[in-house]
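Forwarding the complex inputs:
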Amino acid sequence: MGWVKFITGLVLVVLLSGTDVGSACAQESRVPVPKPPKGKGEQCVRETSFMRANHMNLLLHQRDETVQKGIRTKKYSLRECIACHAVNGKDGQPVSYEDPKNFCRSCHEYVAVKLDCFECHASKPPSKKAAAANSENGYRASGVLPQ
Amino acid sequence: MSSKHNQLSDDNAHSARRRFLGQVGVLAAGISLAPGVTLNGIAEAREADQPASDKVRWGLLVDATRCAEGCDACVRACADENGLSGHGRPETDAQWIRKVTLRDPKTKATQSLPVMCQHCAEPPCVDVCPTGASFKRADGIVLVDKHTCIGCRYCMMACPYKARSFVHETLTDQKPHTPRGKGTVESCTFCVHRIDAGGQPACVEACSKTATGAMIFGNLNDANSTLSKALADHPSSRIRADLGTDPGVRYRGL
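Prediction (whole assembly, two chains):
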């Protein structure tokens, strides 16, 4: 995993150069590091360190569960990641994967990972207007038996 | 279009009798399918963490005698729901559902009906797929897993209903609930994202809300579903039943 290797490398550099880890993190590093914007809420769906290394496995597993078996739990759903990790652009609207500020893109560019996911999947939550239209005559509200 | 006619009706000789049966259907359907009545016939809504089960087989009944010529409410609802927008090239633009006009060459009588993926129990598209991307879910919905689709289009050729489309262009602004992208095959999913949330397909909803209520969606495996009851009440047929694909979509009055 590029990130894990990178962290290990960084720690080694820090140790060898004799500074302590705390102050190295506080300073602007001389090595360029990806700075993914923080998600909304307190924490991620799993520990942050686990997510860094394993988010792709969670997503690929969820993908098969949903598409092939019809399991639609929200926890590892790509749509939920995108909703919680939305980053707003200058216009106050969430940015898509086209934009370097996009959460998912922030690291991938650094580690040269090329995703095809967003050729199909929306990479930003639906705009407020679309969401409002959806709740008026959206798929959840209509045709669902009263519960 | 007589070629369409030949393609869709397996037995021209019996079309007169079928038309008669169709008329009977109109009378009875007027009672059982009053417009505005919501007919989803969905007995059990599944929990999000439960997989689709073969206790359910989703099916659809289209009452061709109620389907109005010139009405495309179902087609528009499908396009809105799934974000299907054309490029003005009807030969290659995605069509998950289309209105087909049948004309009896002898009597000149015409009939209009929607045709979409027939969600076969024995789907030829699944048989020919080299990667397993074309598959049938436990509850009978025939889908493309676009993650494994390589865009070879064998399934499009194998489908006797011409129900599948290929995405030729790079797409942007897809609906979050319907990811679509260039280089993969796609077709009607029965609005699987709605069904999994306890709803019914967009076309069915649109037909009952804004058109003639000519479609009933439900569980074929549940004898008490609105769908099963409607099927038990009146004869219906499957398109190209002779091929033995056992479609989940049935037509009344064909």
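The first strand of chain B starts at residue 58 and ends at 63.
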